[in-house]
Specification:
Elements: H1 6-18, H2 20-29, H3 35-95, H4 118-152, H5 154-183, H6 186-196, H7 199-211, H8 217-246, H9 249-269
Length: 271
């Protein structure tokens, strides 16, 4: 499919995925975790993703499916696609062992002493490695979501990419901290954290070579409805709980409302 926004969409997806490296760098060079900043920014990210999913992406999916299947069939298929996206990301989440869940928030202050036992260091390394694998699995549908949104509407793809990038920062911390303190090797910790984010551009590549070749109103509508479900699940299951764990409840909610407000204004400006 010839689309002038393809390269731009790939670039946004790469930016979102590789922001795990930012989290890795923060873990290495910060003495303390800025919990207020992370709490507000993750709440903000959740607000952007929830608002754009329910107001813009879901509506575009329904419009596309209604054209192809009629009002009744299109509406039912949109709802099915939305909950199908939720089911997909929930299954992926369920397959990740709880002990290695990358969304267990970590802070620099919680790093264990470097003179821990060999068993402790081995456990830390295993935690970091499994976190990298789990994050890569999670990042795949996120990459697909960012890419397809940007291909359809670049101005829609930008805030989604930024929101996902913010949410990837603490995931980079979750990978790099245990690996660095198990191996005392910053380069290895950074590269593994960085690599876990590459799953997002991989999702974009697969989306391009598989889905884009068969694009129609029906395929677009189902995929977009699923993307909305995926992003709502990520916001409710990962971002908001993480934001509250990092800081105060009200900071997370203020960030959430600010994210919704910024997204609402940005959409209104491009009517």
């Amino acid at each position: 499919m010839d689309n002038p926004h393809i390269l731009f969409a790939f670039g946004l997806t790469l930016f979102a995925g590789l922001s795990t490296g930012i989290g890795s760098a923060l873990a290495f060079f910060a003495n303390r975790t800025n919990t207020k900043f992370l709490s507000i920014s993750m709440g903000f990210s959740a607000g952007v993703m929830i608002y754009v999913s329910m107001v813009e992406i879901f509506a575009k999916a329904r419009d596309s499916l209604t054209v192809a299947l009629g009002p009744v069939g299109g509406s039912w298929t949109t709802v099915a696609g939305f909950f199908g996206g939720i089911a997909l990301i929930a299954i992926i989440d369920k397959l990740v062992p709880s002990g290695e869940n990358p969304h267990e928030m970590r802070m620099v202050e919680e790093i264990p002493a470097k003179n821990g036992s060999a068993k402790d260091m081995s456990g830390l390394y295993r935690t970091g490695l499994f976190s990298a694998i789990a994050i890569a699995i999670h990042n795949f549908p996120e990459g697909l979501a960012t890419f397809l949104s940007a291909v359809q509407d670049p101005m829609l793809g930008i805030p989604i990419a930024v929101a996902i990038a913010i949410h990837n920062i603490p995931e980079g911390i979750a990978v790099s901290i245990p690996i660095y303190y198990a191996t005392n090797n910053r380069k290895k910790a950074f590269l593994l954290s960085f690599a876990s984010g590459l799953a997002e551009p991989v999702g974009a590549v697969i989306g391009y070579f598989i889905l884009m070749q068969f694009f129609s109103d029906i395929i677009f509508g189902i995929v977009f409805a699923s993307v909305a479900g995926i992003m709502v699940f990520i916001s409710l299951d990962e971002l908001l709980p993480g934001a509250q764990e990092y800081g105060e409840h009200h900071l997370a909610i203020y960030g959430l409302i600010a994210g919704m407000g910024v997204m609402a204004i940005s959409l209104l400006l491009f009517l």
